[in-house]
Amino acid sequence: MLTAAATDSYLRPGARAWRCRPAPADVPRFHRALDGYRPTPLVELPALAAEVGVGRLFVKDESDRFGLPAFKILGASWAIRQALADRADRADGGQITLVAATEGNHGRAVARVARMLRRPAHIFVPQTIGAASAAAIRSEGATVTTVPDGYDETVRRAAAYATGDPSRLLIQDTAWPGYEQVPAWIVEGYSTLFHEVDEQLAAAGAAPAALVGVPVGVGSLAQAAVVHHRDGRGRPAALLGVEPAVAGCVTASLRAGALTEVPTGTTVLAGLNCGVPSSLAWPYLRDGLDAATTVSDNEAVRARADLAALGVPAGPSGAAPLAGLRAMRHHTDLGLNRASTVVLLSTDGAAGRPA
To answer: Is residue 75 within 8 Å of residue 69, measured between CB atoms?
Structure first.
């Protein structure tokens, strides 16, 4: 049954003045050198631009990234490259098993990179993942362990499995005190997506984005959006984070002014069903997000159907930014008008689950 929980929202008008360090410049070069690299499409949707009252609206379609149905391999590939180099520098030696927890696409991305590197992978999944998603991870050659609990406990189990064994390397996209370097590399890996958007907007003759809508789980992709648009290089777009109504941990944290854990429920936005933000992402989201909002399953499913009708094969999580934009478009603090360019990140395809 689809949820219809009330929308919660947060606005921070001063976010565009905040500044942070840029992502490393060599990340896009790394991805371009990988076999099978190509930029994912940036699809212009004039009908949606007219609906929300802006000049041009584009959707970044991540339904086929290196043959996988989500963007996650950008972060996983860069982080694995950096982590294996770091492990080699410390001369641990031996065969390394890559370990991760996931509700779908992050774990499959780690498993795919492991297969490319001819290394083993061990992926932990919550019981709610579904047989098809687990099978997709196994198809990459990974060992899959099912945890009879939710995502957050699955992360704890994966971390416990990898801890203290030099033959195991945890590649997780959420951070906690003492585990922040690998998640930081994952966030750096996502920077390629935003460089592609800039280049594609310019090629389309569009103005730089006035607003970017981002699905939010633990907040790593939203952190990458903040870094890209708050690095002082002339891209100060408004940033809108969108979460499930049953798992609005970032919106709750922003409203509380402190990192806040919330109970989670059942939602079709499965990859965003996270109860606590990444500790690494939190300072960036606190200071660099202009707005955050939660959306119901019904709103996300409607947005997914509307995108599909316009030729964009989004999953519910990928469609969430459209639902969030619809909920927030009348807030004047976002600065949208008939001349604005809006970019929405559709992070997963119809077959993907972005966690």
So the answer is: no
